């Protein structure tokens, strides 16, 4: 087992114990993991819908067993897989839309996330992905199936009460609806702060819906460093690719959103009795890896996959030498090694 993976397991154990465990118990045993969000969490749902946002092709999956592309937007495992495995629940987080799900898959949790989705349903309209509202509807279907798979209403309720729920979305919303395609939301929200409040309202509503089904332990992830993502640096410096630097305004917006999200947690704690809520910082961890030359990566400003400036999806090819030296596997997503190094 690599040092990075060992550190990830140690962090997850500490994070979950400190943030989500019941203070009256010495430890907590999670029964299942459930995931809602975008490509950072999607383990293959988009392979079962008609969308251009798919990754079941080369170069994705190079570090996966048998070098197989599985629908994960990565060279290997995603955070849901690493987290589910670290909790000793099962090795992988299966996508809900997989028709081959077993009762055991249902009892131990599934994944509802969809690459290209966001907290704002409008985000999915451009990519024909599964919007958050539909992900929540799928969760309702899952809860009904869980009752049968678990052997009754009481056992199904126990599984949900002790499940770990993660929400990870928001980046696609600000990129597609505000920065890169501003006509989509700027007419309605004249400031980024106003759009952030709208997104966080959607997240709060989603948490309440999942809570109403009996779930009590939640991880809410902040935005990644939007202004430092390869795709945004490319868009900002298209006429001069050599001038690729993080975009200060977008980074300020990222920090503003994350601060608001952290401020939302006490409200959720107060209004949803028995709930446990933890904020997971992505931005500062990724920025540390961008800025620290000792992080083991040789390239932090370009995606590994691709021959041009657009390095993702079916437009991606592979630079075979870079899988372990590039921070991002493509213009939007970090590589497996970065996922194992970070405190996600």
Notable characteristics:
single chain, about 350 residues, alpha/beta, Rossmann fold, two-stranded parallel ribbon, disordered N terminus, SGNH_hydro_sf, GDSL_lipolytic_enzyme
Question: Could you describe the 3D structure shown?
Answer:
The chain has one domain: SGNH hydrolase (Rossmann fold). Helices cover 42% and strands 8% of the residues. The chain has helices at 3-20, 79-86, 103-108, 121-127, 132-150, 153-161, 171-179, 192-212, 230-236, 248-271, 283-291, 336-341; strands spanning 33-37, 164-168, 217-221, 276-280, 299-303, 326-328. The protein has a four-stranded parallel sheet with strand order 1-2-3-4, with helices on both faces. Strands 5-6 form a two-stranded parallel ribbon. Residues 1-21 form the signal peptide.
Q: Kindly name the structural category.
A: alpha/beta
CATH A-level architecture: 3-Layer(aba) Sandwich
Q: How much helical structure, as a percent, in the residues? A: 40-55%
Tell me the CATH topology.
Answer: Rossmann fold
Mean pLDDT across residues: 81
Strands across the major sheet, in which order? 1-2-3-4
User: Would you identify the regions where 5 or more consecutive residues have pLDDT less than 50?
Assistant: 1-10, 306-327, 329-344
Order of helices and strands: HEHHHHHEHHEHHEHEEH
Largest sheet: 4 strands, parallel
The first-level CATH class is given as: Alpha Beta
Q: Categorize the overall geometry.
A: globular
